[in-house]
């Protein structure tokens, strides 16, 4: 069970991150500034490790470089920016709902790329986990959907762009899980995967955000908060995540990631006095039940 517990610890740290990230966004810092600042600090932190393993990195196979491009450029940088941007284009409830497709993407890619077998019983328990994940976020999803304009306006250029960005983020995060597992199984250390993930993400951001006004002008009062997020979700969160990924299949890891919204809701309950609805508690119980059975039965 240690693998799935590592992933749950990681999702708890990611949830703590949201208590800092969202006030920053609402306080005037842009998503681009926050994501760039995180990758810059993390890359600097990992420079000694990258220099120590420079020879191995320099001689890495093309397939390994491609994997780092996926987890860093696409999974760490592009997907985060796409997901944030989608919130400004379409109903946030739709964004959250479409995000629930991520485990399906990761499970499918794990079958194709990692050749992980999919047991028939796994499918049933995985669907239970997905349903539990939906119930956890139902408080955010259902009210928004009830007021949604289902007319042809949903097919406007703006809306299509929003759907496209959301699905891009979902595909990127799902692929990042699978290719991170691939690198781990091919002998890369956790710190090597983390360091190159952030480095490739930073290179991607530097090449794509140069035309975005003010992205490199981060206020002095913002840096300490970004630094705290780096500690929580960047260093500790990703460390526990990749430790867990070493021990369990990618298909189970992506289901364990669904504990993130439940952890976020629990933290909001504790620190912000935002109550949990009974349906959300039921969703959390179903998610725990499904993922535990899959782990114990080795489906």
Q: Extract low-pLDDT stretches.
A: none
Question: How many helical elements?
Answer: 14
Q: What shape does the CA trace take?
A: globular
* Alpha-carbon distance between the two ends: 13 Å
Radius of gyration: 19 Å
The largest sheet, given as strand count, sense and whether it forms a barrel, is: none
| Share of helix, binned | over 70%
Taken as a percent bin, the fraction of beta residues is: under 5%
Please report the total strand number as a whole number. 0
Number of domains: 1
Structure description:
The protein is mainly alpha-helical. The protein has one domain (2-297). 79% of the residues lie in helices and 0% in strands. It is built from 14 helices and no strands. α5 (92-99) crosses α8 (138-146), α6 crosses α9 and α7 (120-136) runs antiparallel to α14. It is globular, with a radius of gyration of 19 Å. The protein starts with a helix and ends with a helix. The model has no long low-confidence stretch (mean pLDDT 82).
Q: Which structural traits does this protein have?
A:
0% strand; 14 helices; mainly alpha; 299 residues; 79% helix
Outline the fold blueprint.
Blueprint: H1 2-26, H2 31-52, H3 54-58, H4 62-86, H5 92-99, H6 102-113, H7 120-136, H8 138-146, H9 157-185, H10 190-208, H11 223-247, H12 250-256, H13 259-271, H14 278-297
Helix pairs in contact: 1-11, 1-13, 2-4, 2-10, 2-11, 4-9, 4-10, 5-8, 5-9, 6-9, 6-12, 7-14, 9-12, 10-11
